[in-house]
Amino acid sequence: GSAQASGVQYRLVIRDASTLQVLQLYTCLDQIQSIEWSSDSLFVLCAMYRRGIVQVWSLEQPGWHCKIDEGSAGLVASCWSPDGRHILNTTEFHLRITVWSLCTKSVSYIKYPKACQQGIAFTRDGRYMAVAERRDCKDFVSIFVCSDWQLLRHFDTETQDLFGIDWAPNGCVLAVWDTCLEYKILLYSLDGRLLSMYRAYEWSLGIKSIAWSPSSQFLAIGSYDEKVRILNHVTWKKITEFEHPATVANKRTVVYKEVEKSPSVETGRLSFPPTRALASSLFSTQSKYDIAQVPVPLQYVKPVADRANPKMGIGMLAFSPDNCFLATKNDNIPNAVWIWDVQKLKLAVVLEQLCGIQCFQWDPRQPRLALCTGNSKVYLWSPAGCVAVQVPGEGDFPIVSLSWSSTGDSLALLSKDNFCVCYLEREEV
Q: Which GO terms of the cellular component aspect does the record hold (predicted)?
């Protein structure tokens, strides 16, 4: 929460999140390909996949450091366990996961992990880990106790080709879903019993994304047919489905359209030659939102059907931390974010941007959504309205992804090679 890590080639830079002052500099053995903080922010993991090496640095003891070398086994993924004292490395060809303990220096092995989009999942309380496995052309799930990595349950799943697993936030139910060639989602209890199976349709591309509501009461399933279906946690039946049509017709939906306006500058304020900051603001186009009158036609892209991973269907969805809203993106309508009211199960707001949505994320403390579209602006929506903020500075800063701090008072904005931090004023409640 209070420090930020960034990797620059071989160097790991730790900065204070409120001042961006450099706190620590570490030099790694090779180019850093991924970084991850431990849950208590005392350690940072740097993975160098090409070398098969992970290096771990301690914030409290700059002299301490740890190097894990997977050797000829290679390395394709590395992550922390929830306790922040074990590292899970997935070796090449998904032959095994090695679990390294920083405390006891012991190693455990988990065999046959499946190469799929989301093959490892921890319960929110950090007590259990589920691993998707594939052996003898069948899919299995193993559930381990994280305190000693003992196997709790092992069961086969009724999937053709398991694609992902995800625990409900309360840790009671594990969702397991199949490849997009088959619409199928299975819900298992902690002891491996099949609670329910849901299929919306057959013979067509199926599930593309899923999200649990923070309360664990709803499971949202986004699919290639451009709909989101919501299941409830009592019967695991569908309670509603959300369509994403090319025209927003409902009068109760507020549609915010991004429009560009050229900046108006009072000539009295101009100094010649203009200051650099003023010059850059003179030529950058600013954005604002207009409220559009329904019906509003949205920009719709017809997907190329015979390509792999066609750009169609619900590619992103996320619940707000207070369970009040669900944000979705239909890849056929690349410039729009849909915000649904979860209590009323109705569409509340659509934001139509001028460019395609790259990323969106909810503020962890309040219902406020940040999004970026690959330009140098960040967009914020809350029930009070929405605003576009230009990143100041010279030159272009194309934002490709963003991430909230855990306190919700700042946002890291990332371009391909740089990052900047956007600080938000705390609203007095």
A: microtubule organizing center; MWP complex
